[in-house]
Design a protein that fits this description.
Blueprint: H1 4-13, H2 17-74, E1 84-88, E2 94-99, E3 124-127, E4 134-141, E5 148-154, H3 156-206, H4 222-277, H5 284-315, E6 323-326, H6 327-341, E7 347-351, E8 360-363, H7 365-381, E9 389-396, E10 399-406, H8 441-451, E11 455-460, E12 466-473
Parallel strand pairs: 7-9
Antiparallel strand pairs: 1-2, 1-5, 3-4, 4-5, 6-8, 9-10, 10-12, 11-12
Helix pairs in contact: 2-3, 4-5, 5-8, 6-7, 7-8
Length: 488
């Protein structure tokens, strides 16, 4: 069973925070008004009683003397309005009570003997006999030395003044509390508006709208700082989610494209294998053709798998050795290798904007050789036989530049930004049957160049064709001829 304290705590937690804050504010204000009113009433009553005491001291001797003279002269007495006079013998028994004509009650004064400490002392307070009126009393001795008297004045006006003050203070206090309640509620709602905006934004984001942001305000307070921090976090979350979605989409597209690319050679291999198993291929020439096709498709699948593995490694952090090297030497080797593979193809090496010379770059030698092989191979595959290919190297600002130009059909401008995507082909009918590529070569080029801090693009060759432009950082120092990249 929960204790009473726990139940109260749980009950308070169900009350909205705004209501609790306003309630605390009003409670504190009520306590302040109450304590202020009570303290003021006490001080006011004390001050008024001190004034009554001063009046009583000043009036005692004249009033008592006049009353006694009137009694001795005429047998009747008169005293000022609201006063009451009691004459007592030595033992304190009243022998004469004199009230004003307007007095409706008289003080209930206890017997005051001649030796009572109250005689010639400080004024004290008593109540009236039949009523509830308070009286202020001052006791003294008559001139005979055997008789005492007690002169009293009612505190009705004092109590009425204090009562009116309390009522007025209470009314003003209630007005102040009501005003504070309205003002406090407005101020708390206004102060909590940014928190409600944060709550609304959180609900929208929980519903899937990652673009929502918390409105920022001009005030530079804690809530504004929290809003800015949350907006920065939300932007980071949105970017992460977008990157993850893009990655998942690329992965789905990658798997679909890889499956599609592998389906054709696998179907070819399986088809020839089934024909052979069924005895449909018996002639030596037909058997040689079937084995050649199986070997060709197997090689195609092997190349595709190798490219896929290369891209998978590049998707991680590749192990590249970036060092100064001469881009002219690498380009010359690639041109020479192409001459060996394509003796009928005219391929030349030039300077970018002048004579051919050393071009120092910061890069990984093996990766840049792969870039050259892929770009030149792409130009060979997608241009008619005999079409010249030019390789140019040079410097532009702080970048070393490599260009591979062909004079084939070129690439439509609308597709120039897509050729570096995986499995993308500018012409879907090209490259699927006649020894074309698998659509991964340029994607590998883009990944290799990007991991070396460079960039790659494609433009139109003057006179027609495509020019692939690779830019990588220049080296500030020439390559060390003693370095051997093949050494461990």
């Amino acid at each position: 069973m929960t204790s009473a304290r726990q139940r109260i705590s749980l009950g308070l937690q169900t009350i909205p925070l705004q209501v609790r804050l306003v309630a605390i504010l009003l409670t504190l204000l009520l306590l302040t008004v109450s304590l202020t009113t009570a303290g003021t009433a006490v001080l006011l009553k004390r001050d008024l009683i001190e004034r009554v005491d001063a009046e009583l001291r000043a009036a005692t001797r004249p009033v008592v003397a006049q009353a006694l003279q009137d009694m001795m002269a005429t047998g009747s007495t008169r005293i000022p309005t609201t006063y009451s006079l009691v004459i007592m013998n030595a033992e304190g028994r009243p022998v004469l009570t004199i009230d004003s004509t307007v007095a409706r009650a008289h003080p209930d004064v206890a017997p005051i003997a001649i030796d009572d400490d109250r005689v010639d002392g400080e004024p004290f307070t008593v109540r009236s006999g039949p009523g509830d009126v308070q009286w202020r009393v001052l006791a003294g001795r008559l001139s005979d030395g055997r008789t005492t008297f007690a002169l009293a004045i009612p505190l009705t006006s004092v109590n009425e003044t204090v009562r009116r003050m309390v009522v007025m203070a209470g009314l003003f206090g209630m007005a102040a509390i009501l005003t504070a309640a309205a003002t406090g509620s407005f101020a708390v709602r206004r102060a909590f508006r940014p928190l409600r905006e944060i709550e609304d934004t959180a609900e929208a984001i929980a519903g899937g709208d990652l673009t929502r942001r918390i409105p920022t305000h001009a005030a530079d307070d804690e809530v504004a700082s929290l809003s800015r921090s949350l907006n920065a976090m939300l932007a980071q979350i949105e970017t992460s989610f977008a990157a993850r979605e893009q990655s998942e989409e690329r992965m789905r597209q990658f798997v679909a494209d890889a499956s599609h690319e592998l389906r054709t050679p696998l179907a070819t291999v399986r088809g020839y294998a089934e024909l052979y198993r069924q005895g449909a291929i018996t002639a030596p020439d037909a058997l040689d053709t079937a084995m050649g096709r199986i070997e060709s498709e197997a090689a195609r699948m092997s190349g595709l798998v190798e490219d896929l593995l290369t891209l998978a490694r590049l998707d991680e952090t590749p192990d590249l050795t970036v060092r100064p090297l001469d881009l002219t030497v690498l380009a010359g080797d690639a041109v020479a290798d192409t001459h060996v593979r394509e003796p009928e193809r005219r391929i030349t090496l030039h300077g970018l904007d002048g004579p051919l010379g050393p071009v120092h770059a910061l890069g990984d030698e093996a990766a840049l050789r792969q870039v050259l092989v892929n770009l030149i191979g792409n130009a060979v595959r997608h241009t008619p036989a005999g079409t010249p290919i030019e390789v140019a190297v040079g410097n532009v600002d702080d970048m070393a530049v490599l260009e591979v130009r062909d004079h084939g059909p070129g690439i439509p401008r609308a597709e120039a930004g897509k050729v570096f995507q995986r499995f993308y082909r500018s012409d879907p009918s090209r490259g699927r049957s006649g020894g074309g590529g698998n659509g991964l070569g340029l994607a590998i080029v883009s990944a290799l160049v990007g991991h070396q801090g460079g960039r790659v693009g494609v433009t139109e060759t003057s006179g027609g064709g495509a020019t692939f432009v690779v830019q990588i950082p220049r080296a500030t120092t020439p390559p060390d001829d003693t370095d051997d990249p093949d050494e461990d």
